[in-house]
Write a structure and sequence with these properties.
The structure is a single chain. The chain is mostly helical and about 190 residues long. About 80% of the residues lie in helices and about 0% in strands. Helix 2 runs antiparallel to helix 9 and helix 4 crosses helix 7.
Length: about 190
């Protein structure tokens, strides 16, 4: 996908689609506020780049020849998202506060997010690191843009006058979205096995 406009559109569509990373970013904005949640963006960016760079530079031809590796990545992603959903749902906090999302939560979730593999294999051009650098720079800017939107959405929910949601309720809603995403991922993995 070498067209700049197509690349930007597809990346934005993927980054703005609700999923585990975006759910956690919104929860981070809700529980931390906008300024304190901004470091979470570094976790998301590092998570994406940790998958995209090696796959786009080295592994894209190998993954195409070995679909079992892609299936293993889906299973790992499903288990991680399910773990996060359970941890959010059952976590009890003192004083009714929701558990704060960490940079490491964001990074690991993003690395296991199927979007990272889709971007690396389907959207990102393959080539040397220097050939990918302009694309990676644009991608990084789009990640920052989308992450700020999810953080702002979470923060807006915490300040909404018409919405009476407690931090614990937001935590349960985020856990529900993560559980739904894990179910969708499990379904697609089972279809790949059939």
């Amino acid at each position: 996908m070498a067209n700049l406009l197509e690349f930007t559109g597809v990346i934005l569509l993927l980054l703005l689609t609700p999923g585990p990373t975006n759910t956690l970013m919104a929860l981070g904005g809700y529980s931390r506020g906008i300024v304190r949640a901004l470091p979470l963006i570094l976790g998301e960016l590092c998570g994406y780049l940790a998958v995209i760079v090696p796959v786009a530079v080295l592994a894209a031809p190998y993954l195409a020849a070995h679909p079992g590796l892609s299936l293993a990545a889906k299973v790992a992603a499903c288990l991680w998202v399910l773990f996060l959903a359970c941890r959010l749902w059952f976590r009890q906090e003192a004083e009714g506060k929701a558990r704060e999302v960490t940079v490491m939560d964001i990074m690991v979730t993003t690395m296991l997010n199927p979007k990272a593999l889709i971007i690396a294999v389907v959207v990102m051009p393959s080539g040397t690191f220097s050939e990918l650098l302009p694309w990676l720079s644009l991608f990084s800017g789009l990640v920052v843009f989308a992450a700020c939107g999810w953080i702002t959405l979470g923060y807006s929910l915490s300040k909404g006058k018409n919405i009476a949601l407690t931090p614990r309720a937001i935590q349960k809603i985020a856990a529900t979205f993560l559980l739904l995403f894990a179910a969708i991922l499990a379904t697609s993995t089972l279809r790949a096995l059939a």
